Amino acid sequence: MEKLMLKASDGYVLHGLLGIPETDVRGTVVISSATCIKKEYYLNFANYLVKGGYTVLLFDYRGIGESAPPDLKQSAIFLHEWGTLDMNTMLNYLVEERGCRDIVWIGHSIGAQLVGFLDQHQHIKQIIAINAALGYWRYFPYPMKAVIWLLWFVIGPLMIRYYGYGQMKKIGWGENLPPNALLEWRSWCLSKNYYGGFIARHLKTDRFYKIKTPITAIYFSDDYIANDKTVSLMMNFFPNAPTRILKIDTTRYTRLKVGHSGVFRKRFESSLWPVLLSHI
To answer: Which pLDDT value is given to residue 23?
Structure first.
């Protein structure tokens, strides 16, 4: 993997990794991370794709991993900037500097939710949305609904009050979050329309009507976040994109828990990764 340092349009420096096959390049894939997950989590899956002939780009959003500032407490980063700025930086690099076309965008959770902000989306031939779901907390099953209630009504506000930022590592939720990012995420998850209100203010419309790229939405049967209701509701934000929703019954492939993020772990290389590859 080649290390990248790319400047976003606002000057913020983002870190990424680029893997290029030795021969017979079959295409280009971007893996866009879920909230609180750094790029290295996807390295094994990325290498699997590189060995299969794909150029693969991984990156850290601002505030996460190598793209985090020295002091999160003083950071002014918002969650939506991952879509409006960071994702665009990566796509622009592939299109303008490497001449890539017909790109496959694999978005994990928020990594697919925010693709509506991509300006050069015409160069993406397919979006594969992994466990991308509308995050309204009441749409989750018990007992996890109670856990998420605690996060947004008790733990989240307390973290901001006492630490000044989201101490997600302490609760086992991946990387820490800048305060504005956590609060914006919280506001989305407390709304039945999720980020619909933000989109309306930012784009003067409540849907990503410009996206016409085919979307394959894949979710796993043991994920409480991406479920039968929340995945279909998320796809409603892309009314002009041909969408296909595919629910994977994990018991057909493994006895292990897959959940919201597990599919990218190496333990699923022989069972679930070929399923994802077949859609690429």
So the answer is: 80
